[in-house]
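Running log. JK asked me to keep both predictions on one page so they can be read side by side. First protein, sequence followed by its tokens:
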Amino acid sequence: MKGWLLVLFALTLKACAQFTVEERFHSCVFTNAPTGETFAYRLSAPQFPRPGVRYPLILFLHGSGECGTDNRRHLKVGLPALLSTLLRQPEPVMILAPQCQTGNWWVKRLARGEDYAMPPQPAPSMEVVLAMVDHLVDACQADPDRVYITGLSLGGFGTWDAIQRRPERFAAAIPVCGGGDIRRVRELRRMPIWVFHGTADQNVDVACSRRMVQALKQVGNRAVRYTEFEGAGHAVWDRAYGNDEVIQWLMRQTRAPVPWWRRLFG
């Protein structure tokens, strides 16, 4: 019986692999109720959802090169590697991949210097994206204790912005070559965060990530991890997303209380 189950599992993985990234993501439009603004996004969800089951949700924020209105370009960078690794994991997940427009970025300005101060109000695109996440949780589709966020380049800055504005919403984060407000990290002192950057990045200085990691450690965050790729340039996201250890780490994180026996015995 066990042998048949293994064969069935292998056939399922093979069938999943035959779908392209675009085919695995449904094209959707979200309407923000307070403003009436519409926003294009893609959503990948379990093909056969179980009634009453809430699934982990990963919010993926693309980079500046993928901005637009076609609801397609942002599927081509970073997301294929992330999806491929997720398909190797036993647990089904939901992936929310919105697309922001040029001129309406995830952030109002990039946190390139140590003097950066996060604006009081989020960028319009970030406000809508956070509303999307809330909607999926409120609709009993996403597990409120297992909402994750990751982003690359511009999306890395957006990742920091999102978790600094709504730390209570996210269970863990993976910012790739981004940066944030070093003065507003105290709210993140208990959040598991795995940061990635290349030392030879000519687009976003590696100091942006280094500052955030150092600031987190100074406020007592023992759950922060930092991977720096020596000699690597800007495009390090596939090395992060293609690593099974990274994704397995992400999927273990939860905001729900962990039983004492699990803390002791893993």
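And the second, directly underneath as requested:
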Amino acid sequence: MDPDWYQKHKMDNVDKLRYHSNKLKIFFEKYLITGGIPLVINEYELNKEIPNYIYDLYYSWIIGDVLKEGKTKQTLKEHIKSILVCYSMPVSWYSLAKRSSVKSHVTISSYIELLSNLFVVFGCFFFDIGENKVNYNKNKKIYMYDPFILKIFSNKLNIPVEKEKIVEGIVGATLKTTCSR
């Protein structure tokens, strides 16, 4: 927490905090729609909607980067579909591979690694409290960094993801980016 902000607001009354809370809810609801991408945010603020060309632009960007790495669009879509169906649930590479026509856990892990390098998804690996270390062999949860990117694939593949699961992913992404510094 920022010490200057704390000093400025430590004597705020409940009404002022309630006002800020309501503003934060409004901003968070917008974030669930736009994610953190400036073009999307600006378009939504100006027109209260996101035009289809922006969805297509970011979808094409991700597909293009995957194709540049010698991967296929169809396999990518199958793996993302597996991720969305299991969103916020612990999974293994093997269980994700079983849900697609490509049955290799090595293939799924290579696609997830690529998507992770593109900052599309991240893995939340099992942390063994008793051992005080990450166990990479246990099931993991796969999340998308940005709710707008999640919405693109959710819409394209016609797989809805519940708001609570999207929020869980946002919390995970925030923790991952702030705690790993």
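Observation for JK regarding the second prediction: The first strand starts at residue 121 and ends at 124.
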